[in-house]
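Bench log, entry 3. Co-assembly request; chain sequences pasted below exactly as received.
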Amino acid sequence: AQKITQTQPGMFVQEKEAVTLDCTYDTSDPSYGLFWYKQPSSGEMIFLIYQGSYDQQNATEGRYSLNFQKARKSANLVISASQLGDSAMYFCAMREGHGGATNKLIFGTGTLLAVQP
Amino acid sequence: DGGITQSPKYLFRKEGQNVTLSCEQNLNHDAMYWYRQDPGQGLRLIYYSQIVNDFQKGDIAEGYSVSREKKESFPLTVTSAQKNPTAFYLCASRFGSGEAGELFFGEGSRLTVL
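Structure output for the full assembly:
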């Protein structure tokens, strides 16, 4: 069965430093997609970055990059130059199946990031 | 502006009462989803719908019901059969059926059973 694991319940980082949030996944499907979402205290989920299982290069979006290690089944999020506004809960998610049929996402339990001035 | 609107943002109900959470989107998205979030846990899928007049159970559908009479609307009813309904509920939508395509989320509805 598909599963997403985030082992860091909470993390601190100093402003302007980089931080890595861990995510491992388990699936037997060769085609899958990995997502990262940010949830600030307001509650809404904000999409950050996507990585497809067949993508050759690691995804990047501005200060966000995804360190995709397929053999290790890990998809860690790297935030460079942390800002106070990055303080939030971060969720890793995986799309089940081939994307067309249902595109259901399964989520990890999240990592609470606190950026310190 | 395009987006997903959930209402109400906060809702209180007494035990034994049904309550309906509204979700409206003007993004022209085909698929819509309802997730439940509990403290310390990730999101769990309740129901989803790929097209109008069709919907499927997710992982925790017991005690919930939905309808999809219009493309723009996907209301969720929390029935009295739901044993622990106090939670944060998030509605999401997605366009089409391509490989990527992230989910877009509303701001959520927080339900508290008194």
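Chain B has a mean pLDDT of 91. The interface with chain A takes residues 31, 33, 35, 40-45, 48, 50, 56, 58, 88, 90, 92, 94, 97-108, 110 of chain B (CB under 8 Å).
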